[in-house]
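Renewal narrative, Specific Aim 1. Our central claim is that a sequence can be written position by position from structural information alone. The example that follows is taken directly from our test logs and has not been curated for this report. It begins with the structure tokens describing the chain, in the order in which they were read.
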């Protein structure tokens, strides 16, 4: 039996319609929670404040950068911190805010290695002091069709990579997330191969928009949002922005990334936001802003590169339907 129909005659989707099948089948706990809540919003994966953990991280000072502001309403803190993809803490959108209290963001060490002249091993305090902290307001677009507007605190990833002095043969950058079963209960799942890995071309990673983030909303990153440091690549789908990073490796070949390994027909290496390239099981032409648009509000049109046209020159001459 299908869910109720919208005014345009289309029916609301099942979770299996908007989630990779392997993940959908793994969400037994999600189905149980939805039944307990007795809410159609829970069945389709909308944020549930009833499940939120009211954690308030310490302040993080950052100077607003006027070059990275948006004339759009920012997503509420509650929505941005309780509706997350972070499968190391569970596959339901509310799981990270419920389960990530086990993550220990200090002490923390990040290594930078591979094709670099100067390998680095930095603790969190050294990383926080490496470059001036900026606040940048970015759109974040998820491959599942939802979006947010979040003020992030950090500095361009290029600031860190330049310290390691990439060698001429370095063409790609690999990001490796923490994989600790003691801290991350979701690692018991076979949803993905762990650790979570992502990657960019070196020129993408060096673009000023690529942000190494340590905070959001003027506070240090909450555990469920990728504490203590994460990547934010605003022109790509959200899964490219690796969380809780422990290693960055510069390579001469493209790294094998987690979602591309799991479902290469659905998740390409580039994963640029592109309304003209549909996911095999749903359209990418429109999106729904979390906390703003309900099911009976018209969706927004998805913007090419999520509206960040300044990155278009990175892909000159490329067929972005082939290199999706």
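The sequence written for that structure reads:
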């Amino acid at each position: 039996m299908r869910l109720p129909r919208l005014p345009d005659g289309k029916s609301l989707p099942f979770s299996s319609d908007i989630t990779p099948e392997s993940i959908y089948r793994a969400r037994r706990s999600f189905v149980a929670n939805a039944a307990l809540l007795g809410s159609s919003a829970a069945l389709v994966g909308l944020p549930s404040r009833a499940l939120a953990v009211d954690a308030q991280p310490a302040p993080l000072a950052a100077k607003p950068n006027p070059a990275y502001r948006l004339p759009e309403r920012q997503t509420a803190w509650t929505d941005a911190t309780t509706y997350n993809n972070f499968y190391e803490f569970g596959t339901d959108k509310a799981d990270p805010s419920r389960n990530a209290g086990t993550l220990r963001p200090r002490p923390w060490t990040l290594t930078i290695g591979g094709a670099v002249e100067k390998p680095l091993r930095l603790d969190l305090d050294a990383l926080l002091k490496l470059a001036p902290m900026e606040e940048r307001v970015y759109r974040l677009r998820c491959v599942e069709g939802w979006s947010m507007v979040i003020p992030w605190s950090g500095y361009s990833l290029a600031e860190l990579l330049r310290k390691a002095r990439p060698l001429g043969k370095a063409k790609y950058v690999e990001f490796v997330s923490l994989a600790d079963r003691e801290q991350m209960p979701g690692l018991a799942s076979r949803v993905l191969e762990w650790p979570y890995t992502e990657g960019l071309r070196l020129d993408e990673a060096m673009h000023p928009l690529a942000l190494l983030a340590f905070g959001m909303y003027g506070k240090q990153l909450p555990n469920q949002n990728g504490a203590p440091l994460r990547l934010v690549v605003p022109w790509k789908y959200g899964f490219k922005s690796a969380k809780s990073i422990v290693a960055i490796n510069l390579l001469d070949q493209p790294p094998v990334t987690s979602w591309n390994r799991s479902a290469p027909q659905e998740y390409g290496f580039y994963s640029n936001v592109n309304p003209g390239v549909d996911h095999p099981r749903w359209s990418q032409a429109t999106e729904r802003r979390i906390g703003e648009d309900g099911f009976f509000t018209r969706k927004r049109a998805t913007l090419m590169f999520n509206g960040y046209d300044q990155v278009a020159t990175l892909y000159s001459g490329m067929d972005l339907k082939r290199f999706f």
